[in-house]
Amino acid sequence: MARLDPKFVGQVIALAKVIDKFDYYKILQVQRQASLGQIRKAYHKQSRIFHPDRYFHLDDKAFKDSIFRISKRVTEAYVTLRDAQKRSFYDKQLEETQGQKLRYTEESDQAQKQSKKEEIGKTDQGRRMYRQGMQLLDRKDFRGAERAFKMAAAYEPDNELFKQKAEEAGAQIKTDYAIK
Amino acid sequence: MAEPVIGIDLGTSYSCVATVVDGQPEVIPNEWGERTQASVVSFLDDGRVQVGNDAKRRLLTHPRRTIYSAKRLIGRYMFSPEVKKAMAVCPYEIVEGPNHGVRIKVMGEEYSLPQVSALVLKEMKEIAEAYLDVTVSKAVVTVPAYFNDNQRQATADAGRIAGLEILRIINEPTAAALAYGFGQHLHERVAIYDLGGGTFDISIMEIGEDTFEVLSTAGDTYLGGDDIDMRLMDYFADLFMQQTGLNLRSDVNALQRLREVAEETKKAFSTRKKVKVNVPEAFSDESGEVYDFQTVIDSDTFVQLTMDLVQRSFKVCDEALQSAGLTVHDLDGVILVGGPTRLPLIRDSVRHYFDKEPVAGIDPDEVVAMGAAIQASALVDSETTAFLLDITPLTLRLGTVGGYTEQIIARNTPVPIDRTRTFTTSRDNQERVKIRIYQGESNRVDENVMLGEFEFSGFRVAPRGEVQIEVTFEIDSNGILNVSAMDPETGQSASTEVSLSSGLTEAEIQASMTQVANADLI
């Protein structure tokens, strides 16, 4: 069995200690603008170096623990950056905390989901009416959809999306020649 | 030379063993040159045990002491639907063991499922030892991708009972992909459609040189070639009823024989469009009168009988593709694994669904064992370069109040990884919490499988909702789950390696080891 280069062992143990101070781009060693393909390639490349299976046959516990620590972060970086929504939230998080919050945590995940909700609406009722409107739109019930979007806008008068949707649905009614 | 390591495909119907020689995977045949062995164990009068293709022949003559399809029961509880289903059709006796475990009773003796599977594994080990002429003690064993952790643990226990050090339990479709891509310098995205004797799996993988990344996997542990046999068997039994007015199902031996005929008929459809079925002396009524059974079945009828099973597999494929965020047009190839994929019915449906010709030149019965051998070799020997970026196939959850669970690590998440979530107490001045770990795809506790539990105490005692408890789930590359709980305020922590239950205690495993070690396999 091949022996490991002692220099490499030292580097790995040192890296494991500071890995939580690296952002995901640095962990995967990719540019901030990296494409999905580049991220996947980088994940494979870093895994070739740090995946625990490569060192399965070794006995050096301190080294293997360090490898495990690093590989968990490599996976985490990949899982976050390959998902467009998580990635854009992570980028925002890096910016807003000026690089202080480096991991995509449960908190990030909840905040991300919350902000996604808020893109649609701030109140439960508003969002519910909006969803109803979208469903009616699917069924080509433009009158019903317009009514639902207007109701949604009543709950959230400053929501531009609701107003815009109500107008869109309303515009469709003119081409809807159903007779009563 | 280092001790050779082996890969074992422990199948529902057939098993296969392989090793890597001079950098190339090779299937190891038994002394008769047979490359796959029936996963059948038969107990003889004189205490000896027969395993493999000879044991399978005893299914007809000694149905009550010949055990087949043990994999369908391994790692399951007595109350699971699969066990109930097996009890209705198996001629051998299935009884309840401790802690709702399943035991098989043969000639007054009870055997656990890991023990039965251990006998198959021991046979595979002995075949390898006879062929390689050295002792073999290390192996990689494969399981369906959709096996839960209890089923995996039970399989690992079977390995230990058989006297093997299990280097890793890997997924069958992943193993197939390893064998397909090993040393081929591929850059491809492929689907592995794996229809085995008892289970169906689909995995989507990205192969980049020596790196095999699992993108997603999905499966159905209740769908396999056996189900096709059952459909045919039922069809025959109904037909017999129409022809004679007699209920052939009332005789387990006759039914067993019909099952065999059904399997042969299915296999015949791999090459023929019409199959003649002839069962002389199929059944004898109370007065002792003997009836034959004869019919001719064409492939249209066969397709009608089984089409819904095939369609079910494609629902699972939809799921896997969706989970990977891909469509069939993003795939470069589709690989067929498992004996039933030889059927034109399956091949045609797969071609149609994936809109491409399945990859040719792969033996669907041997490819999994070869992949397992490659993985075994890659783990013990740094010269074999193939490595697997695997995922966790089922969602890991934490039990919360009111019979609900919270997802901690979603299925199809790559490993190794850790995830932390913060929980709180549900009662005022609560002093301890039970950390219960579940696996499955439902929010409800009772629709998941429980993997383990432990108690955490020593955190700050306070009104409910004020205490923070950070729970971390960590999966290593062996697929082993570690769960820890911590109070960030006091720093108090507790952790456990989730000791998975195969339904056997350590003492039972030890006792089985001795028993199996002494078993006289012929």
Beta fraction of the residues of chain A? Answer: under 5%
CATH topology of the largest domain in chain A: Helix Hairpins
Low-confidence stretches of chain B: none
Strand content of chain B: 25-35%
Mean pLDDT over all positions of chain A: 88
Under CATH, the homologous superfamily of the largest domain in chain A reads: DnaJ domain
Helicity range of chain A: 55-70%
Q: In this structure, how is the largest beta sheet of chain A organized? A: none
CATH fold title of the domain at 394-491 in chain B? Substrate Binding Domain Of DNAk, Chain A, domain 1
Radius of gyration of chain B: 24 Å
Highest-level CATH class of the domain at 394-491 in chain B: Mainly Beta
Oligomeric nature of the chains: heterodimer
Taken from the alpha-carbon principal axes, the silhouette of chain B is: globular
Name the features.
heterodimer, A: 180 residues, mainly alpha, Helix Hairpins, 2 domains, 69% helix, 0% strand, elongated, B: 522 residues, alpha+beta, Actin, Chain A, domain 4, Substrate Binding Domain Of DNAk, Chain A, domain 1, 6-stranded mixed sheet, 5-stranded mixed sheet
